[in-house]
Amino acid sequence: GGDEGGGFASRAPTKRRAAALGPTATMEGSSQIRQMVNFILQEAHEKANEIRIKTEHDFNIEKQMLVHNAKVAIGEEYKAKDREREVQERIARSTALGDARVKKMKLRDDLLTQLVEGAKASVSAVTATPAYPDLVKKLIIQGLIKIEETEVVVLCRQADVAVATKAVPLAVAEYKAILAKETGAKVDPKVAVNTKPDKMLPDHSCCGGVILTACHGRIVCDNTLDARIALAYDELLPNIRKDLFNA
Prior knowledge:
By secondary structure, this protein is α+β, with helices and mostly antiparallel strands. Helix content is 74%, strand content 9%. The chain has helices spanning 2-124, 132-147, 161-183, 225-245; strands at residues 151-155, 190-193, 209-214, 219-224. The chain has a 4-stranded mixed beta sheet with strand order 2-1-3-4. The chain starts with a helix and ends with a helix.
């Protein structure tokens, strides 16, 4: 019985110590739970902060890329528009220069045309002077020397038929004398003045002079005043351009 009492006595303090330790253990457990919760919350906050920082970092990088790409695109578009503007300006300058040259050439041609028309007006006035019959005779002589044919038809204006008809025998005689003197050859060409209306030189556009034909029109010597003006114009054109345009 003593052992039992002694055993009881020895167990009683253990229960009392447990009872005394109960609230402390509970507090320690709660503290550990709070620490765990705080740790978890801290980890969550840190993770969330990492995610936020990474998201902001990625966003900033993407934004920079978008801004960079936009700047590059705008720069390329500006360069393309600038090149297009330069091309359009060059085209406009070239067009303006071409137009100016065309206008300049047209003005020069108009001036030269006026010069030729003025020369024709001056030369055509000769047909109304007493010197014209002798001029027609000399033109016929020149034509005969040039074509050297035995049968020749002289074409002239309707207004000059009478002058040419009178000039032909004089021209033939002088032509024969020239050939005999220069070459010793004796020729007797048959020269007739055309009387067909459809073969007359136009009074309204021909200044005067004659055209000699032979071999049924296959040989032609144009000795009209218009042809002589054109010949003189071609020969003097370089001097004319120099005097008028300093070119």
